[in-house]
Amino acid sequence: MRALHTAATGMMAQELNVQVISNNIANMRTTGYKRQRAEFQDLLYEHVRRIGTQTSDQGNILPVGVDIGSGVKTVGTPRIMTQGTILPTGRDLDVAIRGEGFFKIQMPDGSYAYTRDGSFEKDGQGRIVTAQGNLVQPGITIPTNATSVTINSQGQVSVTIPGNTTPQVLGQLTLTRFINKAGLQPIGDNLFVETPASGAPQDGLATVDGLGDLQQLSLEQANVEAVTEISDLIAAQRAYEMNAKVISATDSMLQASTSMLRS
After folding, report:
1. Model pTM?
2. DSSP codes of every residue in 105-168
3. Which residues form the Flagellar hook protein FlgE/F/G-like D1 domain (predicted)?
4. Could you tell me if 65 and 118 lie in one domain?
């Protein structure tokens, strides 16, 4: 019976749904993480009686049909790119983005990746880098004798040097935006890379052209809401159980039919 296959597609879809939800919950404390959701579509139908076909010589039209579906399929797990909560950390090199932009990161092979994670560090040369040691663009080096680092809302990086009353400006962090930021490809380590779906990167300065502004001494938290994820998890679990119940009921029907044939 086709119901077995139909219910099996439902179980597989909900299994993937639970995997997506579990990844969201696992990353509730991941800086700058953007939650995903599973999206589904129904599969092809067998049209036993097509709607709108003529049913008599007088031209009567069939008002309803008989369409038998074959299940469900997963079509995507898009990311919800809404703003996460910004919490203070007190670290000079922690920077949160309030708005649409991404930090631009140079990878070891010379390519670029993008992130919302502003928990930066200094490497052995004083350069501002990510936790993996990748260079934040544009490259800014902090002098070893600097006593404090200030990053304003426009991304301008200044330091205080002993003996100087005027802060020294070292450079300015840039931000990058995309036409379709949900089309970025995640590669792990809180990084994304551009794809044909995301559009070309558009570099700019904070507070300009809707790129957002920066907030030092803070980090953007994941936009995962525990209550939403738990309720979605319960709904996915119940949907899985109902599909399993369909398989059990279909099996019982097949057993009954087999017993009738044997008798």
Report:
1. 0.86
2. EE-TTS-EEEES--B-EE-TTSBEE-TT-PEESSP-B--TT--EEEE-TT-EEEEE-TT-SSPE
3. 96-159
4. no
